[in-house]
Amino acid sequence: MVDLSVPRLPAARASISAWAHPAPSAQNAVSGAAQGGVRILLRLEGLVVVAAAVAAYVHLGASWGAFAMLFLLPDLSFLGYLAGSRAGAIAYNTAHSYIGPVALLGLGLIGGMPAALALGLIWSAHIGLDHALGYGLKYGSEFGVTHLGRVGPTDPW
Question: Tens place of pLDDT for every residue, the chain, 157 residues?
């Protein structure tokens, strides 16, 4: 005889996916920092931003010499740390937030300004690479504490 009862689903796994499970007592754990799968997702997001910004830059046909000269320009914000951790974090975060580059991209698109587009793409690529490498936005407590976790020798990536 054929069994017409409701099919039984396999029992749910006891473990949770790495994407939803926090990193187990990681040395990288910092209050307010992304951990586990969320941290990995944010770093992959940075990689996607780099790829998209470089692809758009190729499409724009702008100068690669300018790209090379301007790519590390946002890192001059490190000089803010000469005034202390809080001022350094503010300077760094201002230069490493997507607010500035997206504003430049919008200005370039709306105003028909290819130079603004090129600068916005270079700036976005820089931020994306930093995030992909684990260099996140800084907290004012110290340089190595970021929204992506601690940067430095204890970083598991």
Answer: 555 554 554 554 444 444 444 444 444 456 667 677 888 898 899 999 999 999 999 999 999 999 999 999 999 999 999 999 999 999 999 999 999 999 999 999 999 999 999 999 999 999 999 999 988 888 877 777 777 777 765 555 5
Return the SS3 of 149. Answer: strand
CB-CB contact of 124 with 104 (8 Å): no
Please state the three-class secondary structure of 52-111 as a single string: HHHHHHHHHCCCHHHHHHHCCHHHHHHHHHHHCHHHHHHHHHHHCCCHHHHHHHHHHHHH
- The residue type found at 146 is T
The string over 82-106, giving b where at least 16 C-beta atoms fall within 10 Å of a residue's C-beta and e elsewhere, is: eeebeebbbbbbebbeeebbeebbe
Collect all residues with Cβ–Cβ distance below 8 Å to 123 and sequence separation of at least 6: 70, 73, 74, 100, 101, 104
Question: Considering the entire predicted model, what is its pTM?
Answer: 0.76
